[in-house]
Write a structure and sequence with these properties.
Blueprint: H1 7-34, H2 38-48, E1 55-57, H3 58-65, H4 69-81, E2 85-89, E3 97-101, H5 103-120, H6 124-127
Antiparallel strand pairs: 1-3, 2-3
Helix pairs in contact: 1-5, 2-5, 3-4
Length: 132
């Protein structure tokens, strides 16, 4: 198995991990300066960025965050306490709970997303090459 990994593979993996770590470090700094955690930011991003909707269920958020549903529910509760999100019972399936951004959550997300997008520019794989 190890013979299928060559120097070029290792360099590529190292470069990817380096660029990813640089981004994560900057993201932590941006979020902390705004007074929220990176997980809270990611939750806001996934709520608003869910395809074809402006909300997501706790289960969908757990999948996007790669976290346990009970941990995600606790994160939603912390965001709700902070006034960033609100929960709504699904009208067609009362077992499902929708998570929506509040106006405060939307403002916070858009401000932080703009800062993150500026840093994503160095990662061509996110938005593609940036024009100058």
């Amino acid at each position: 198995m190890s013979s299928s990994i060559n120097k070029q593979d290792l360099e590529a993996m190292s470069s990817f991990r380096y660029e990813l770590r640089k981004f994560l470090r900057v993201s932590e700094e941006v979020c902390n300066a705004a007074g929220i955690t990176t997980l809270q930011y990611q939750l806001l991003l996934h709520v608003r960025g869910f395809p074809e909707r402006r909300w997501a269920t706790v289960g969908e958020l757990a999948e996007r965050l790669q976290a346990a549903p009970n941990g995600t529910a606790a994160l939603v509760s912390r965001c709700e306490t902070a006034g960033l999100v609100t929960r709504k019972t699904d009208k067609t399936d009362r077992r499902q709970v929708q998570v929506h951004l509040t106006a405060k959550g939307e403002r916070c997300l858009l401000r932080l997303a703009a800062e993150h997008k500026a840093h994503y520019g160095s990662f061509g794989w996110v938005f593609g090459p940036q024009e100058v």
